[in-house]
Amino acid sequence: MNLEKVIFGFFIVLAATLNFGFFVGDIDNPAHHDIYELFAALVVSLIATVLKFGDRTQIGAVHLSTSLAADLQLIAAALVWGYAAHVSETGLSPDMTAKVVSLSGGALFANMVSVIILIAETIIQRR
Question: Could you tell me the pTM of the whole model?
Fold first, then answer.
């Protein structure tokens, strides 16, 4: 068993599951979406991105691009949350919560593509 591949797969799947945990719930209800889970999803996604930098293959390039897309979406979601909670006079309204959750949904899609690529790559290497 290759420990590097285990760690790589772990962070890819963990990024997706944390993102999913934040995404689930009523889209406009701030009580259903924990800021710490968004933060954890962002941190793990950034770690997964760093782990993807060493791969020079075409599949590695697609892995990196999906991870960068997820990072961008999660950073945007965190910025919108921060703006809503600390700058906006209305606070974290249902409208702003829906924007944050929608951005995390985009990141979730990118993470799921990355997981699918990881599974496909694993199946191909077995043969």
Answer: 0.92
